[in-house]
Amino acid sequence: MNTHIIKAVILGFTILISCQDSTKNQTKTPSNHTNSKVTDTLIMETFTDKNGQTLELSFNNNKNIVTISLNGETAILQAENAASGFWYKNEQYELRGKGTNIDLKKHDQLIFTHVDSMVTATITNKQGQTLNMVFNNTSNTAKVYLDGGDEIQLNGQTPGSGIWYKNEEYELRGKGEHLELTKNDSVVFKN
């Protein structure tokens, strides 16, 4: 998956399920985790919690509903006005979330939760440059900001050791406290 798709996924997922106006023409974009599928009116997502339990969601933004499937039970929840993120509920279930972090309650008891594993770090080199980094270990992606500049989305690679993230222009490699960010094979940050 390239960085443009990942960026669109996160933004699209949040916008699509937060939107309450069913008359708008919306872009349907799958998220960046397991088993996403998009049809004309549905966004289908599969989440896995830390215990290996699987929750399937089918968002119908035209009808402002989500169909949930967990442990052989299926239910339809209606969209509610959320201050931030998304919120769906019926008499039994309540689904809340923001981005790919979600909680599902049944009769006010939390029965499923999915939270991406995130790590943040900031490093400054001898030249005074600052590199802010946000690593999403669940999706194996990173967002980096050089000197507070634009967000750079990177995808995790398989290094021999240390870390390695890249996109079409940028590459972040490092081991321990030593990091190097390159743009088109030219070093733009090194500590």
From TrEMBL:
InterPro entries: MliC, MliC_sf. The keyword Cell membrane does not apply. Pfam families: MliC (PF09864). PROSITE patterns: PROKAR_LIPOPROTEIN. It comes from the Bacteria. Residues 51-108 form the C-type lysozyme inhibitor domain. Keywords: Lipoprotein, Membrane, Palmitate, Signal. The keyword Metal-binding does not apply. SUPFAM superfamilies: YdhA-like. This is MliC family protein. It comes from Bizionia sediminis.
